[in-house]
Amino acid sequence: MKAGVAMRTHYDFRFRIADFRFLFAMHPGAVGLCAIENRQSEIENR
After folding, report:
1. Residue 17 carries which DSSP code?
2. What is the C-alpha to C-alpha distance for residues 38 and 17, in angstroms, rounded to an integer?
3. Residue 42 and residue 38: Cα distance in Å, rounded?
4. How many domains in the chain?
5. Could you report the average pLDDT of every consecutive run of 10 residues in the chain (46 residues)?
6. Phi, psi (5° rounding) for residue 42?
7. Whole-angstrom Cα distance, residue 38 to residue 16?
8. Whole-angstrom distance, CA of residue 42 vs CA of residue 33
9. Backbone torsions φ then ψ of 17, nearest 5 degrees
10. b/e sequence 20-34, b meaning 16+ C-beta within 10 Å
11. Host domain of residue 21
12. CA dihedral 11, 17, 22, 23 (to 10 degrees)
């Protein structure tokens, strides 16, 4: 029973990492736009 619980939480953890990676992969454009906007505002602030 104890081993099953540990295995399940470990699986949960791995699944959450995979889910996060999936969400990150779904929005590469949004991440890129944020980086571009930050760089432009840095240039404007100088």
Report:
1. H
2. 27
3. 6
4. 1
5. 64 73 69 72 75
6. -65, -40
7. 28
8. 14
9. -65, -45
10. eeeeeeeeeeeeeee
11. 2-45
12. 130
